[in-house]
Amino acid sequence: MAQRVQSAQEFLQDSFVPLVAALCSEEAEKVTRKNNLGFCELIKPFCRLTSEVHMRDPNNQLHIIKNLKIAVNNIITQPPQQGAIRKLLNDVVTVSQPAEGLVANVITAGDYDLNISDRSVKASVPWYSSWKDTLMGLNTSTFYSATTPWFEAYRESFLQSMPSSDHEFLNHYVACMLVVSSSEPEPVEQFLKLSQEQHQIQHSNEYSYPKWFIPNTLKYYVLLHDVSLGEEQRADSIYEEMKQRYGTQGCYLLKINSRGSNRGADEQIPDPWSQYLQKNTIQTQEPYEDGPYTLISNKNSDHFIPLDGLGNDSKVDGLSNNFKSHPLQLDHTSDSGCFDGTDYVKPNSSMHESKKSNTWTPHGTCLTLTDHDRIRQFIQEFTFRGLLPHIEKTIRQLNDQLISRKGLSRSLFSATKKWFSGSKVPEKSVNELKSTSGLLYPPEAPELQIRKMADLCFLVQHYELAYNCYHTAKKDFLNDQAMLYAAGALEMAAVSAFLQPGAPRPYPAHYMDTAIQTYRDICKNMMLAERCVLLSAEVLKSQSKYSEAAALLIRLTSEDSDLRSALLLEQAAHCFINMKTPMVRKFAFHMILAGHRYSKAGQKKHALRCYCQAMQVYKGKGWSLAEDHINFTIGRQSFTLRQLDNAVSAFRHILINDSKQSAAQQGAFLREYLYVYRNVSQLSPDGPLPQLPLPYINSSATRVFFGHDRQQSEGEKQAATHISLDQEYDSEFSYQWKELEEQAVAAANKGTALSNFQPTQYCLNKYSDNSRFPLGVVEEPITVEVAFRNPLKVPLLLTDLSLLWKFQPKDYNSKNNGDTKEVETSGKDMIGAEVIPEFLMNSEETKMARLKLFPHQTGELHILGVVYNLGTIQSTSVLDGVDPSVVLQTGKFISNGMSVRGRQDLEIQGPRLNSTKEEKTSIKYGPDRRLDPIITEDMPLLEVFFINFPTGLLCGEIRKTYVEFMNVGKCPLTGVKVVSKRPEFFTFGGSSAILTPLSPSASEHCSAYKTVVKHSTSLYSLTSSADSSDFGVGTGCQPEVIDVPLPDSVLLPGASVQLPMWLRGPDEEGVHEINFLFYYESIRKHSKMCHRVLRHTAVICTSRSLTVQATVYRSNALEDEKGDGDNMLVFVDVENINTSEAGVKEFHIVQVSSNSKNWKLQESINLSEDKDIKLANREKGKLCLKAVRCKHFVENYTFADIVFGSEQIISSTSPCADFFFRSLYSDLKRARSQQSVHTSQGAAKPHLDNAVRLIQKCSEVDLNIIVLWKAYVVEDNKQLILEGQHHVVLHTVGKEAFSFPQKQGFKKILGNSDWEDLEQESSEIGLFNFFRPENTSVPARPSLDQFSSLIKTSLHYPETYNHPFHQKSLCIVPVTLLLSNCSQADVDVIIDLRHKTTSPETLEIHGSFTWLGQTQYKLQLKSQEVSSLQLKACFVHTGVYNLGTPRVFAKLSDQVTLFETSQQNSMPALIIIGNV
To answer: Which neighbouring-strand residues pair with 1430?
Structure first.
């Protein structure tokens, strides 16, 4: 229960005090009015005695009265109406508000204060899991205070506004003061007149109100003297006359106004009247502005609103005195029904002015501190000499009367035991008693006399005697079944028992319960029942019986008074939180109930406060429906109280939390929010735009795109894909584009990479590097994609959606930027903004909005957020079957098309920093500047279109297309480059492309190759040469970066140019994504932007065509017929692995070309007469070609073409050579990198490594084969001719090499074991590279295969030799052994002719022949030298013999025998020996 400054005993004592009436003459009122006070108001602050008072009880025992207080009121002759009392209580509660602005504090987010009333204790969120600890600390805290001044003010006003009743005498007047001014002409006559008036009021049947305690009321005569008027002698003389007439005990001279009203106002005199006058203002129905104030400040100033109100100089019924209608009397124009507790009492329009007048009216201006003491002395004298003796005398009289009537013993005390110990009448329950509440006793009835005596004893704090009397009266009343009287006696008996000093008996709570039930159920008097509850609850609270107090308070809540129910429910809630184990959820629940009843009673502020306090408990616990209800009510009440900011905040909470409400309910919340928000915005139409809660914005998902939207493809023209917001971010692709741009920048910078290189970023998102300010270009749009999410189940309609921005113009060309000015949301000449007229979001939808800005000046742009009108679409649904008008206050919020203007900021948090130790140990975030672009000056803008670009190719197919370059910017561009990770896929042609004439056939068939008509019919090769630098593969160059051959290297604004581009289908079937990056620069150098790029991703689907397998062998012939020296044989296997799906009928092998610096193809060894090689599906062909060493070592590559058709394709020109060199590039690049590794690793043993390298070179061959083909395709009943080429790189003698394999076809061609070997070799092959060459890292010693190629041997002998064995038994045949040194160094050779006889196999193979003459030779062969030895073979009979038995050992001349090994012959040398 709410705590208060007074103890329960003090509260109960002050609830019932002796009442004294006051009758004042008009002159006396004028004297007091100089201080802006009536007489009763004047003495009110001094009505509590500061000293103890003594009186004697009927038994003549001394009784001490402490802290006695009296109440002096004007006489009111009309009883107050019930409606007026209700209005008074309503006003009292209305003006009493918390001392702090709790509402604003409570509904803020984050940590909250548990504001129970005007004080608060910090409670961190969440404390739900530890209710007891937190709230026990809360309860015992010295800072904790839960005062509820509105309840205390209500209680005081309620107790004082209770009308007098015949069944009790506590509210009856005990005495009457007659006040006359000394300035009147005949004061004594005036006293007589006032005395007659009082007698008439009390004893005449004309007046039934007020009630008087006894017929012989004490009259006390007061002469009021205005000191400021002088005439002290006259006042003294009049007083002397009064003393003679009324006695010294019955009159008093009170001197006031010692200070003139014109004296210095700077003297600070205390004003003890202000707190009482605030109450009186309410009572006289002059409402003042609501504001916090404290009703109770100390014990001397805690009395109540008087029953009589203020004195007025008005006459009623011809009486000269100020009898007037009761101040609680309602105006005749007002309807009493409006104060039934259910309707809201509207505040007076003059509230503010009344507050002003009351606040600035001084009181007691003519009184000094001496006057204060005089008034205090006057009250003390009146009480000591007049009131208490009169009460003591009356008690004695009543006691004597009771004793004489009952015929009992002399003293009531002695009789008490007899009464109580005698035969007790069993108390009947309330339900058994008859409804005799209408029974009335005559005034002289002994039962009433006992009650009257009990009330008098109670008023003078004689609680033991009072209890005995109440107990006696209770029994009498119950015997008579006078239930109203019995309930009153029970009530006061319980209070008396509690107030008895020393607590001789426990508090009889059951007395109170019986009294409450009787008042409520039998007597139907809720006011008396409510008084019982207020008194008993205070007693129970003082005994820490909070549970019983709460139950008592809740029991009296009913539908007849919302205000009473609200106050009692609130006090019950405080009881729950003050329990030993605080029941916080019960506190919150009953605060909600109290808030609801406050709202019904029209107490909007208190209703709002209750809901806010309950919200502290429910918030953050996951009880979303409860939170929604509370927030909705808070919003409603705040709006009614014109606390619009709080209303908006409350409705905002409903909308931003993940609501579990139905769609209809959410729609109602949204409409209410929009209505409230619109009212807020109308108050300050020129103020800043407010922040809107809906829809949600995922700021981190915001994407910013710089540039125009992608051009759409038109017919055969396909625009470059570039970048768009429709593309998903891929970190791997992003890194690839960065690498490509870095290569292009390095190439433009003459091959050196920039240390501070930063990639161009056209699209910024949460994955990109946003630490730098992005760059935009004047007149190029900036598109911001904002991610909206609608959390509600109802659609949202955003209208006039646009970006909010700030711009600082700057001129980046001038040296001095000058003053920069900020322009916010204005200046269309600087920034143009796109506005989306309507943006509809369906329920729970996530939707992207793309908003554009068009910068027209250079400077710094800051994108702040979005601005839009928030509304909802028309809906006719009802809320869960409830009519919407019920929820929305008769439909005044239902407004289709209602919307409010507001904004949401885009605040993006940067990435968390984690590089330094300080950053790792703390939480720091870097900047995210994607919304702060710098607008730079004009730049060229390149657009690229691909014409007739294919989507499907055969593997290796060559196709010619065109590319159109267009400059749509405002300044010329230059330095166009294209870079790709797949340089083998495309070419713009080498420098020799324009020198090759077109043949008629090529023109006719639109051939991609440059061809010439072949005049010779022989199959000998036609040679040509080319430099690799012509095709971008020269040393120190980057083949990935290709210069686009623009005419004059410049493209003017608005100009366009078309260039041919050849494509070659990738060697692997499937779908390929090939990235192109076009790099270009402006002719003018810019400080901010050096270059620009354009991206394109081509998607090509390739299907199988041919697969080529080639092997090179050394020819056994040391010299060919032409004497060209060293030669080799090349075997080429070509297989058609195409599937019939592509519509390819057959392939024609039209030409085989070689490319090498050392070797060239010489002729085709083809025994077939049909020179045209045709391969249908799944057919395979084999070619045998002869290769010879070039006579002169040249830097250029030698191309040799062996033509099988009628036209020669010049392989040394574009595009054949281009694609060959580009395909070769990956191998060359790897070789160069390995060469650098070899150089660094081989420095320690150069002599050894050189020798190894020389031996290795003997088995290496640098020969590349190009197979050119044509494919005949039937498509749409038309025959098309496709062209293409395959490449095979031959590295090692005797080792197979392949074009890139199509594995599905190869597994069928090759055996399993061969295929595994092939896969082993190609395990590390990158896409579109050929098989790797042998590992060139230098081994410790060469392999046997490498030594086998060091010396080439050849035996010359007759294949058949006939010898007459019958004439001569020995056949001697001359044999010539030719030795050729294949290396570039001198070689020592040892030839051993002796047979090995270790194994029987050798004897079988060699047969029985022997070499005659010298059987071991030692020779030294110079570089490339050929030497011959004449040998003799001896045979003894006919047969076939293998002459290949000589064993050849070789070593380099300058080496030890470390590398010496046996030289193996490449093939057997068979001779047939015949007999003649």
So the answer is: 1376
Give the model's confidence band at 222: pLDDT under 50 very low, under 70 low, under 90 confident, else very high: very high
* 23 has pLDDT over 80: yes
Q: Do 89 and 157 contact (CB within 8 A), yes or no?
A: yes
Distance CA 1333, CA 1335 (A): 6
Phi, psi of 82 (to 5 degrees): -65, -40
**DSSP class per residue in 581-596:** S--HHHHHHHHHHHHH
Tokens of 770: 């946003």
| 1360-1363 β-sheet, strand order | 1360-1363, 1470-1475, 1439-1442
Inter-CA distances, 213 with 84, 176, 396, 408, 642, Å: 25, 11, 15, 25, 50
**Token pair 């009457």: residue:** 176
Which segments of 1310-1460 does DSSP mark as H helices, in order?
1312-1321, 1344-1348, 1400-1406
Element housing 986 (H / E): strand 986-987
Cα–Cα distance, 1292 to 1390 (Å, whole number): 26
| Tokens (6 digits) for 1420 | 């030294």
- Whether the upstream peptide bond of residue 795 has omega within 30° of 0, thus cis, is no
Q: Which residue has the tokens 């029974």?
A: 439
CA distances 477 to 166, 427, 447, 507, 526, Å, are 14, 11, 7, 21, 20
Taking the CA atoms of residue 1188, residue 1189, residue 1190 and residue 1191 in that order, the dihedral angle to the nearest 10 degrees is -110
Rounded-to-integer distance, Cα 1 and Cα 534, Å: 11
Residue 619's φ and ψ, nearest 5 degrees, are: -70, 135
Lowest-confidence range among 115-129, 930-944, 1165-1179, 1276-1290? 115-129
CA distance 220 to 212: 15
- 1330 closest CA partner among 1283, 1297, 1359, 1357: 1297
Q: Note whether 544 and 563 are within 8 A (CB).
A: no
Phi/psi zone of residue 1413: left (φ > 0), alpha (ψ -120 to 50 degrees), beta? Answer: left
The amino acid sitting at 1168 is: S
Q: Which residues pair with 1042 in a beta bridge?
A: 978
pTM as predicted: 0.67
Instruction: Count the Cβ atoms, other than its own, within 10 Å of residue 1204.
Output: 19
Q: What span, in angstroms and rounded, lies between the C-alpha atoms of 1158 and 481?
A: 139
Alpha-carbon gap, residue 213 to 450, rounded angstroms = 13
Residues 496 and 1292: their CA atoms lie apart, in Å, by 124
Question: What span, in angstroms and rounded, lies between the C-alpha atoms of 895 and 1283?
Answer: 72
Angle between helices 8-15 and 526-542 (to 10 degrees): 150
For the beta carbon of residue 135, count every other beta carbon within 10 angstroms. 23
Q: What is the pLDDT of residue 95?
A: 85
Separation CA 690–CA 870 (nearest Å): 12
Q: Model confidence over 644-655: pLDDT tens digits?
A: 888 888 888 878
